[in-house]
């Protein structure tokens, strides 16, 4: 069986991907050449796009999915819960909630025709899915409209029948019909060709459970109670002014996030406040018609209150670290506000941080069936932008970086408290953004998983996703 599989795999080796506008994987003898960044295919218009979808194997039909329809959302949820991504040892499988799917698939500008299903003609059973949403991507100096492709899934019983390329071609056709010619996507597997690779890191928040389910190992020199002490987090957040983000914060968070992300080479551009509101606020839990709607995204800000603003004018340096925040509180002798000030003229958001909830099913375990995982999402801090007060540029940059490092450690530390109190077992993060400034210090450990980043129809010089543990981009 293995030999037959190896032969089929060899026959089809990159049969699909070698026909697509993506950089091909380098061979041992290919010379490194300078990349001219931009579209790979010649520019086309939607009128040149095929009007009909490609043929499916007989017995299957295309089906546009209305994710806002509760039943159809249920169907996608079931397909993914039973067939989506697993780890190599088949111990864990992603279990996206319905709320997560709604949140991820209805971002501003989404097109229902980019939510594509395949059903069994006779029974109507949903057996495959692929989706896209609209995003703006900036690669270095160039910004373009793009699709973000996700949730590609083929039922386990229909694997290795070349259905995935049919789905990918159909979502490509739908994007092209909407005049979108580029896409961004990620995968754990290596395809032609990643422009960057990040590694997953994990911060243990619940050692007994993680050891029990085999997610974490108990070092021979340790004990569970020692691990519990090692990974304990404070009961409450420590940064004064740290509070949940509210709608009134959206414009300031948007501005801060845009400024912060401008420092990176490849990013999603959150040009409109509407996007900021969607990605950081719409996934908050609530009661609706007597039913509990699960929370998907947690977003927090640090608000510099008028009291601290005036302190800062007196002694800017006392705001350099979270400890100094506290000393500011002690010096003024007044309690610092923790309730959101709704008036943007009197409050200033200095930092922002978020995570989302993506549980995994634990397969084959007697006691536990869900791993409650939080994934660090976007964050931003003004620590990197504060005036230098020195004419030596290198010294200023070093100072800004160290100030940012301190601030991010305090922020992630507080986010761990929020995650722990919300019942999460682990906080996951990748080696991107400025994460290498806090991963070790906050006791994240390297995992087995890597995430490869891809662009479709856009050649892009490689960037360092931090997987090799060198830099932070
Ligand atoms: S990555 C998660 C993908 N999903 C899973 O891993 C779920 C579990 N696995 C499955 O459901 C996040 C199946 O194994 C899948 C493959 C469906 C993965 N991306 O049908 P065949 C995303 O959703 C290629 C792309 O026989 P299968 C991002 C493979 O290299 N291609 O395989 C999605 C081979 O091609 P080759 C993948 O196991 C991005 C061909 O599929 C892939 O039954 C999509 C074999 O097909 C993957 N993750 O089904 C691209 N995994 O040339 C978007 C395998 O090597 C591109 N393959 O022979 C942009 C489109 C929009 C453009 C707009 C302008």
Q: Could you describe the 3D structure shown?
A:
By secondary structure, the protein is α+β, with helices and mostly antiparallel strands. Among the domains are: 49-187, Aminopeptidase, CATH 3.40.630; 236-424, 3-Layer(aba) Sandwich (Aminopeptidase), CATH 3.40.630.30. The protein is 27% helix and 25% strand. The chain has eleven helices and 18 strands. It has helices at residues 2-11, 70-83, 98-105, 163-177, 207-212, 224-230, 250-261, 273-281, 306-314, 322-332, 393-421; strands at residues 60-64, 92-94, 115-120, 126-139, 142-154, 183-187, 196-204, 242-244, 266-268, 286-288, 291-293, 297-304, 348-357, 360-362, 370-371, 373-381, 426-430, 444-456. The strands form three sheets. Strands 1, 3, 4, 5, 6, 7, 8, 9, 12, 13, 16, 17 and 18 form a 13-stranded mixed β-sheet that branches. A three-stranded antiparallel β-sheet has the order 2-14-15, covered by helices on one side. A two-stranded antiparallel sheet has the order 10-11. The longest helix is centred in the C-terminal third of the chain and has 29 residues, at 393-421. The protein is globular. The two termini are 42 Å apart. Bound molecules: 2-oxopentadecyl-CoA. 2-oxopentadecyl-CoA (NHW) binds at residues 12, 14-17, 83-85, 147, 149-154, 159-165, 168, 171-172, 175, 180-183, 185-187, 189, 191, 456-457.
Compact overview of the structure:
Helices cover 27% and strands 25% of the residues. It has 473 residues and is α+β, with helices and mostly antiparallel strands. Among the domains are: 49-187, 3-Layer(aba) Sandwich (Aminopeptidase); 236-424, Aminopeptidase.
